Amino acid sequence: MEPDLFTAAAEDRQEREPGNSPLAVRMRPRVLDEVVGQQHLLKQGAPLRRLVGEGSGGPAGPSSVILWGPPGTGKTTLAYVVSKATNKRFVELSAITAGVKEVRAVIESAKRQSGGYDRETVLFLDEIHRFSKAQQDSLLPAVENRWVTLIAATTENPYFSIISPLLSRSLLLTLEPLTDDDLRGVLRRALTHERGLAGAVTLPADAEAHLLRIAGGDARRALTALEAGAGSAIAKGEGEITLSTLEESVDRAAVKYDRDGDQHYDVASALIKSIRGSDVDATLHYLARMIEAGEDPRFIARRLMISASEDVGMADPTALQTAVAAAQAVALIGFPEARIILAQAAIALALAPKSNAAYMAIDAALADVRKGLAGPVPPHLRDGHYKGAAKLGHAQGYQYPHDVPGAIAAQQYAPDEVHGRRYYEPTRYGAEARYADILDRVRERLSGE
């Protein structure tokens, strides 16, 4: 059976027998107004509204759309809603399991259908970043000739993972992570809606809070956990999903952690102070609490980057490289594997030699500037490349460091107001000890001694 016919048949079964489908599938929105979150794409006149032809007399715009966002934010849902709103056949393929052969089969079927009386086709291609350049090239004729409406989804940066010709022919829409309020609405609707649990159980506040924590902004994960908890409660003959029942069903202990309250800041502060104090075990404990509580991994990575410069600094200049690499890897990979990357970076920072000299240096320099100690740039350092600069004395007398032995020219660089002031005072810890020795010699040469 061809992929599009299979998808259509599955779609029909879902609508006829919603009770046999997973809760996340049953609760999938069918119109744009049911979509939760992504209001920047759904307000009047926004791209998705125009894509389905609202307010313009009919569908218009590009025949290719790329949806970029983290898992569980509604990429598949939006593609399905667009197909329903435009009365087009919905065909879903995943780049993980499908190849060029399957894509071409859908395109050929769509070409035949478009020549007759049947509906046009929306081809939803999930995980498009897993396609090679050649595989992505195979989509271009279908996009250019509008044989299908291609809606591709990716969790990776499309500017790195999708070929330029396809990007240039596509409308790129960025999906934001769902907020706790968004997920709360999804859960409460699923509890009462006839396509969901239809009021069979209730969800007390503590269990709801736990669901929000373990969901991590992923609606699919939230609904899957809710369904597991509801199944356990009903099997016990209980009318509510208690926290203990929920923990048993999803095998996850509740972490006492309010991401919007004091605990958010307290645990983040404890993580950084444990790194600063070189206690690697405490560091891993607080990191685990943040991960288990559903903290945004990008937030954790940003804190590690700050610590790399503030607390490690020049004692180990590679610490910042490690933290930045971790942040980039986390953005590409996401949980659960991101936990390993964050742990590696946190361990490296905790065990690194420590220096706050760079942090103290920039704050001291900023303090002087804010006091008004910011005189004119010395004439010999000013730009001398434009016509008339020489008449103003700009760049006159400047000594090119590469022309002198040791490449250090003894001349004044700072304005008169701060000439001679020392901001950077290196420690003797780690690699910074070497920089301290170098700095002593450099300052002697600059002073002409």
Mean pLDDT score, rounded?
82
**Secondary-structure element order, N to C:** HHHHEHEHEHHEHHEHHHHHHHHHHH
Distance from N terminus to C terminus (CA atoms, Å) equals 86 Å
Q: How many distinct beta strands?
A: 5
CATH architecture of the largest domain: 3-Layer(aba) Sandwich
Fourth-level CATH superfamily of the largest domain:
P-loop containing nucleotide triphosphate hydrolases
Structural class: alpha/beta
Describe this structure in words.
By secondary structure, the protein is α/β, with parallel strands linked by helices. It folds into four domains: 3-174, P-loop containing nucleotide triphosphate hydrolases (Rossmann fold, 3-Layer(aba) Sandwich); 180-250, Helicase, Ruva Protein, domain 3, CATH 1.10.8; 275-351, Up-down Bundle (Zinc Finger, Delta Prime, domain 3); 367-446, post-AAA+ oligomerization domain-like (Orthogonal Bundle), CATH 1.10.3710.10. It contains 21 helices and five strands. The chain has helices at residues 3-16, 23-26, 39-42, 47-51, 75-85, 100-114, 133-137, 140-144, 158-161, 164-168, 180-192, 205-215, 219-235, 243-250, 262-276, 280-292, 297-312, 318-333, 338-351, 357-370, 432-446, and strands spanning 64-68, 89-94, 121-126, 149-154, 171-174. A five-stranded parallel β-sheet has the order 2-3-4-1-5, sandwiched between helices. β2, α6 (100-114) and β3 form a beta-alpha-beta unit. α15 runs antiparallel to α16, α16 runs antiparallel to α19 (338-351) and α17 (297-312) packs antiparallel against α18 (318-333). The longest helix has 17 residues, at 219-235. The protein is extended. The N and C termini lie far apart (86 Å). Residues 1-17 and 55-60 have low confidence and may be disordered.
